[in-house]
Amino acid sequence: MFQRGVWVNLLNPKAIVFFLAFMPQFIRPEQPLIPQYLILSTTIVFIDICVMWFFFALAARSFQRFTHNEHGQKVLNRTFGVLFMSVGVLLAVIH
């Protein structure tokens, strides 16, 4: 599973485009590039691991009661469906 996750993330076009747009803003061309990219990449990976392991693990634990039966899953799906539709409507109205 870990290896599959690594390949999915490495080959994800959205992530590639995001990092191609994001990382150059923090790179100084007059300084050595490799150390800058290594520090920036290490920082991003560290923050991502912290968020995934701690925040999402705690959030998943709180949603666990909804995922054990069909009724809970239906409630969770409808709740997040309404939230996504609301955000879509807000984006359409605001923009």
Structural write-up:
With 95 residues, the chain is an all-alpha fold. Helix content is 79%, strand content 0%. It contains four helices and no strands. The chain has helices at 2-10, 13-22, 33-63, 70-94. The longest helix is centred in the middle third of the chain and has 31 residues, at 33-63. It is extended.
Structural class: mainly alpha
- Give the overall shape, derived from the CA principal axes: extended
What is the alpha-carbon Rg in Å?
19 Å
Number of domains: 1
One letter per element, helices H and strands E, the order comes to HHHH
Distance between the termini: 40 Å
Question: In percent, how helical is the residue content?
Answer: over 70%
Share of β-strand residues: under 5%
Mean pLDDT: 87
What is the count of β-strands? 0
Low-pLDDT runs of 5+ residues are none
Number of helices: 4
- Largest sheet, if any? none
Features:
mainly alpha, 95 residues, 4 helices
What is the gist of this entry?
This protein is mainly alpha-helical. 79% of the residues lie in helices and 0% in strands. The longest helix is centred in the middle third of the chain and has 31 residues, at 33-63.
Describe the secondary-structure layout.
Blueprint: H1 2-10, H2 13-22, H3 33-63, H4 70-94
